[in-house]
TrEMBL record:
<keyword id="KW-0378">Hydrolase</keyword>
<feature type="signal peptide">
    <location>
        <begin position="1"/>
        <end position="19"/>
    </location>
</feature>
<protein>
    <submittedName>
        <fullName>S-formylglutathione hydrolase FrmB</fullName>
    </submittedName>
</protein>
<dbReference type="GO" id="GO:0016787">
    <property type="term" value="F:hydrolase activity"/>
</dbReference>
<dbReference type="Pfam" id="PF00756">
    <property type="entry name" value="Esterase"/>
</dbReference>
<dbReference type="InterPro" id="IPR029058">
    <property type="entry name" value="AB_hydrolase_fold"/>
</dbReference>
<dbReference type="InterPro" id="IPR050583">
    <property type="entry name" value="Mycobacterial_A85_antigen"/>
</dbReference>
<dbReference type="InterPro" id="IPR000801">
    <property type="entry name" value="Esterase-like"/>
</dbReference>
<keyword id="KW-0732">Signal</keyword>
Length: 391
């Protein structure tokens, strides 16, 4: 989607511009065309109707195509290293081993998951003083959710949480999963039972005194994009489990048009089938996971949401020079979608009598790590209320 549409925008630049670039070096020519495309995309991103136009486009595809969604190809995914044909049988979730991470100053835990039939790797950052009981923050990654958490690679979580007395838990290898229990196994992505793992299996292991976490009984959950969407959904479904939740640039309705397409995009973009997630069309399972329809589980916990408006800034244009106009286009579209999604949830919470949530609507900015990174300390400070900061 990003390549086709952004290429069309670049192609709309008058051909005379190409003629004028013939004498440029290859490097300067590439930069020249990036500037042309970035300028066209920037102007488009500032049109007030873009979000509603995209929503109508997605609605058309949902209603009138056999795949019931926008046709996204595999942009980021690889076949699962855990095919269902090699699924293992475990009697219970168990800590099988632990070792220092090879790249970051965190520990890597290997935990058996009976639900997924495999060993799940979890990265853990411990507080400075492990002798004192600490709360636990489970923080979820975006679409690729690789073996090294994006929060460590690009989110500066070690710096942001350096003076926070909290155990930070980062599940890995959840590519395209939406951190939910899928209705069926995916032949490309494998078996996805992340709700079961995060809510039932993982706590059995981490909160067992024998694991040595020194847990104080207070749980928080948060994330970005795919992970932020899931954090809010899980907090809403299991309100007795969490004291606070935050999400940066997420979607919260699995039924409403932009939210539904957002979740479809996540799965398709890594080679999976959205029909295997919550079923084809608007199913009961999909309705169960629609936080916007019923956000009542969020009423007694601290809630922080963030979105920008998807309008390109000068900083965005410079940042995306290294990636190109296709990625810039994708960042615009995704943030336009999550901006709409965030407003839907905020409006629904208010309609249900909730005004305790903090929702930051940033003017300018698209869907990428510079914003997630900046929001992490803000989000944590809000949900934690400063209770766990070292003096």
């Amino acid at each position: 989607m990003a390549v086709v549409l952004s290429t069309a925008l670049v192609a709309s630049v008058p051909s005379v511009a190409y003629a004028q670039s013939n004498d440029l070096s290859s490097e300067s020519s590439s930069d020249f065309f990036y500037e042309l495309g970035a300028e066209a995309l920037s102007q488009w991103s500032h049109i007030p109707t873009v979000s509603s136009d995209l929503n109508e486009l997605f609605k058309t595809f949902h209603a009138h195509t056999h795949w019931q969604g926008f046709p996204i190809w595999n942009l980021y995914g690889n076949p699962t290293p855990y095919p269902t044909s090699q699924a293992q049988s475990f009697d219970r979730p168990e800590l099988l081993r632990r070792e220092p991470d090879e790249r970051f100053p965190v520990e890597r835990l290997f935990i058996s998951s009976p639900a997924m039939g495999r060993v799940v790797q979890v990265q853990v950052r411990y507080p400075q003083d492990r002798s004192k009981p600490a709360p636990m923050l489970t923080i979820l990654d975006g679409v690729t959710a690789p073996r090294q958490s994006g929060w460590l690679r690009e989110g500066n979580i070690l710096g942001a949480m350096a003076n926070e007395h909290v155990t930070v838990v980062m599940p890995t290898e959840a590519t395209g999963s939406n951190y939910t229990d899928w209705s069926a196994d995916d032949p490309f992505l494998g078996r996805m039972k992340w709700e079961t793992f995060l809510i039932h299996e993982l706590p059995q292991v981490l909160e067992d005194p024998a694991t040595g976490m020194n847990f104080d009984g207070t749980r928080f959950i948060g994330g970005l994009s795919m992970g932020g969407s899931a954090a809010v959904r899980l907090a809403n479904l299991y309100p007795d489990r969490f004291a606070g939740v935050f999400s940066v640039s997420g979607c919260y309705s699995s039924v409403n048009t932009s939210g539904r397409e957002f979740f479809n995009f996540i799965t398709r973009s890594v080679g999976g089938s959205p029909d295997l997630t919550w079923g084809r069309g608007v199913t009961e399972q999909r309705r169960r996971n629609d936080t916007v329809a019923n956000p009542s589980g969020l009423k007694d916990m601290r809630v922080y949401l963030f979105t920008s408006d998807g309008a390109v800034t000068a900083q965005d244009r410079e940042f995306y020079r290294q990636y190109g106009v296709s990625e810039l286009f994708g960042g615009i579209v995704l943030e336009k979608m999550v901006n709409r999604c965030t407003r839907e949830l905020d409006d629904s919470m208010r309609a249900h009598g909730m005004t305790h949530q903090r929702v930051d609507y940033q003017i300018g900015g698209i869907h990428d790590w510079p914003y997630y990174k900046a929001q992490l300390p803000v989000a944590w400070a809000h949900v934690a209320q400063g209770k766990y900061t070292y003096s």
